[in-house]
Structures are given as C-alpha cells and as structure tokens.
Design brief:
134 residues; mainly alpha; 51% helix
Length: 134
C-alpha cells in the first residue's frame, strides 16, 4: 500500500512537471506586451502606424518580416546598416543595436509587428528562441 502511494505521488509530480514543458505559448499576451515595447523603443523611427518614413523602412504591411527569425532577432540585437529592400523600396538607414532589450521584450515586439499593422506572419517567436540567438 505504501509503495502504491509513493508511486502515485511520483507519477503525479512527473506529469505536473512535464505539463509545464508542453504549455502553449500565449501569443495574444505576447502581442499585447509587444505593443508596449514597440511604443517605447520603435515608434520614433518606424512611426505609430508602422509605416516608416522616407528614411526608415516600414514594419507595417511589409514583406521583410518573412525573413528567418534569427535574422529578425539579430537586427534588433546587432543593429542594421547598409542597404536593404523593403516592399521593393531601398533603404539605407542605420538601426542601432538594442541588446539591452530582454529576450522576452524582443520576442514580444517581433510577435506584435508580425501579427499586427497589416502583417500576418505564421509562427510564434519565444524568449527561448531569442536567447538561443543572443
């Protein structure tokens, strides 16, 4: 009887622990937090509606966000210099690196711009992915 209780307790603990690894990432919450990050760090150059300017590229309705996740994360972490093409238009503005942003902030802001402002890029970016690229 005692062995059965211990076995049941251990099995229950393992199930609870394993369920934490399989919980679905809350994309809606990430997008909501990403909007705050965008408004704090990105809006000055990319504008409140994400349309960009003549100098800075748009993040709204853009083909550029279909690039690999690693590329997008590295643009935030390492910055961007040199000519890029966004929606068939060339831009050559410097984006400074922002390594002071946390992994969660970077994941959230990328989830926000990839899923709002006229964009719908499939997939979720998690803080764990950002950490792996850091």
């Amino acid at each position: 009887m005692y062995k059965a209780i211990i076995l049941t307790s251990v099995f229950s603990a393992v199930l609870i622990l394993m369920s934490s690894f399989f919980q679905k990432y809350d994309l809606a919450k990430s997008i909501e937090k990403g909007k705050e990050v965008y408004e704090s760090y990105c809006v000055t150059c990319h504008m409140p509606d994400g349309a960009g300017t003549e100098i800075f590229p748009p993040v709204a309705k853009t083909d550029y966000l279909k690039k690999p996740v690693k590329t997008l994360v590295n643009i935030i972490l390492l910055g961007q210099s040199g000519e890029i093409t966004v929606n068939k238009k060339k831009y050559d503005a410097l984006m400074p690196p922002q390594p002071y942003l946390g992994d969660e902030q970077i994941a959230d802001v990328l989830n926000f711009i990839r899923n709002r402002m006229g964009n719908k890029v499939p997939g979720v970016i998690t803080p764990e992915q950002v950490k792996a690229f850091r």
